[in-house]
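Quick one: structure tokens for this chain, please?
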Amino acid sequence: MNVIFLGPPGAGKGTQAVRVCERLGIPQISTGDILRRAIKEQTPTGLAAKSYIDKGALVPDSVVIDIVRERLAQPDCQNGYLLDGFPRTVPQAEALAGFATIDIVIDIEVSDEALIERISGRRVCPACGATYHVSTLQGTACGKCGAELIQRNDDKPETVLSRLQVYHAQTAPLIDYYAKRGLLRQVDGAQPMDACTQAIYAALGETK
């Protein structure tokens, strides 16, 4: 099954994607992770993308599309995959349609107010990548490896607002794009995590 997760930044797409991929036995394709790795390694793609990500803006389509096309051509994607963070614009969706067939699109919905609280409270371990939230955090060190936690530039409140504005202007039209093609299923992302997971499983079951 080839799945796309839509939803604003902080809606929980990454967390839910891990659960769905484990259940379906398919890889999670996260363009955010790919780009962050490229930035850390200072590759040409990473350097090109860094200035956009730091501002909360979208990385140019040409860069992202090439990354996704190459990734979906790898052997572990032949029996299905879950795209998390791509496509982000209608032109990207149109480009994707040229080299991939999508079975279902899950849109995880959360209000802007709830998202700002979620994202600005997020802390990340720069060493192992573990993610925490200040509402449940004890101390400032990673519970897995002990490294000092950081707040990513794209998680700061002012950048979150910019990211949401970008999402509503450029990414939200994907909801209509996939709805018109009969592929869209919408899930309430504000409900408890396990309830959201069950709602997603139910939506995926509609394709069987």
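The beta strands are 2-6, 28-30, 81-84, 104-109, 122-124, 131-133, 184-188.
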